[in-house]
Each structure stands twice: as C-alpha cells, then as structure tokens.
C-alpha cells in the first residue's frame, strides 16, 4: 500500500450516510454527510448511493477501493443486504453487483456497520487492544460485534452478535428498550411519576443530548434514567459474556456520551449475575474513535494489510 493511498469509507446509518476518504494513518478528508430520509424519498436508495459514490470519486480517480458499513444483516458472501430495518429498500438487493456493474474499475467491500466500527476501533484507535473484545454501539439502534483471536466473528451464516435484537424487558428487543427512541420513551414514562426537580421540561419533547448535559450538571432524574438504561444493557451483556467468554468490552456510538452515567447500572447487573471467573477479567471502556469508528472501519475493509492483522 502506498503511503498516499486512499480508500473511500461509507457509513450508512438510519439518519445519515457519511462518506470520507481515509489514508493509511486513519486521517479522514473530504468528509460529507447526507440525509438518509432524503435519499429514501427518491424511491431508489440504491441508485442514489451509486450516483453519489460515482460523483465523489470524480476528483479521486486514484481511489479504487470502497468500503461500506450497513445497519443490518448481510449475506455470508457480503454481497446482499438481508434485513436493513431503517432502509428496507436495500433488502434483497445485490448491492455489490449493482455497484460493480456501475463502476467496474472499482472494488467494493460490504460489512455490517457494527462490525465495521469494531474494526475501525481495532485498527485506528492507536491504543493497545486485546485479541478478543466485544464492541457495542449505542445510537438509533444497538449494534454489536466481536473480535475473536484478532478476527471478526461473524457466526455460522454471517450475522452473529445481533445483541440489539435479543429479547429484553417488556417483551421488547434490547434496542427497542434502550436505543435512542427507547431511551426517550423511558425518560418520558419515568417523568410522569417523578416528583423531584429536573431541568427536563414536562411539556416539551425530550432530547437525549439535553439529558446527557443535565446529568453532567448533576440532574438526579437524568442520572436515574441513565442508570436504568445501564441496567437493561447490563442484562444483555451478562448473556453475551456468558456465551462468548469475553470480558473486554468497548462502548461507542452517539449515545456513548452517557457512558459515565450508564456504567453504574451496567456494573450492578454484571456483579450480580457473574461469578469471579468473569469479573476478574472484566474491563469496560468507552470507544476512542467516537462517531468516526464506522467510517474508518468501512475504509479498513479495503486494506488487505490491515485485514491480516
């Protein structure tokens, strides 16, 4: 790989499609973010993606590899999205073929977005990480991935570690309980019976960002909500840790800004349900790359040198 070689990384999300060119050191240039809703409104999300990629590459003719992270399940061959809940128009589309047919001079790599984010953290965070770790993304949904013996663990048919879709409280999936909308629903429900003082208005929509800021300022109500979110996530992590026997956990995604406030709830559940065998090797940290992890991870899919670790 040449020192000046660039890859195009694309992080497709339920709210935004982020694109940026990434070099060997993980520096991002020519970054742009598009509205997912606006692309869906064209009634041909795939074509909009193809056209935008082609346009972005006009001034980067030296870029021949493109990595794409998608928010859902993908076939084992990594050619076709199976279930993308936030963009169902992609379901069943042989995306790799559509892209390759449109741009035969380029090579495309497709991966689940949480898997891509885990790879981004592994390759570009510039901090030592163990050979085995679990990566959790907290955002619109709950994503998860595992690096096991330095390799991405994808399971029998290619879609392991869908932690956000395990059964959780209230007969709901985990991400329904503590994804962004789940968090807001929980806060609104708890606010109905909360008798103390809080800066969160009772007559206006609740904002996740405002809740984090309020918790940092000591707002007891927000701290209690985040503690409960941590408990719910902790219950899911107990299952994952027991099944995978991995105790090193990295938490990223937009809602990881609440890390300090969800940690007490997480630890309460882990210490209640796990034995010393698991607790002695337990380590939980916040992701370093933040919202860039998905884009950097998508770009790292293109780099064969990185993929060999």
Molecular structure report:
The protein has 309 residues and is α/β, with parallel strands linked by helices. The protein has 2 domains: 7-120 and 292-307, Nucleotidyltransferase, domain 5 (2-Layer Sandwich), CATH 3.30.420; 129-286, Nucleotidyltransferase, domain 5 (2-Layer Sandwich). The chain is built from 12 helices and 12 strands. It has a 5-stranded mixed beta sheet with strand order 3-2-1-4-7, with helices on both faces. It has a 5-stranded mixed beta sheet with strand order 10-9-8-11-12. The protein has a two-stranded antiparallel sheet with strand order 5-6. Helix 6 (180-191) packs across helix 8. The longest helix has 25 residues, at 220-244. The chain starts with 6 loop residues before the first strand and ends with a helix.
Q: What's the arrangement of secondary structure elements?
A:
Blueprint: E1 7-12, E2 16-22, E3 28-35, H1 36-41, H2 45-57, E4 65-70, E5 73-74, E6 81-83, H3 95-102, E7 107-112, H4 113-124, E8 133-138, E9 142-148, E10 151-152, H5 174-178, H6 180-191, H7 208-216, H8 220-244, E11 248-252, H9 259-273, H10 276-279, E12 283-286, H11 293-300, H12 304-307
Parallel strand pairs: 1-4, 4-7, 8-11, 11-12
Antiparallel strand pairs: 1-2, 2-3, 5-6, 8-9, 9-10
Helix pairs in contact: 4-11, 6-8, 7-8, 8-9
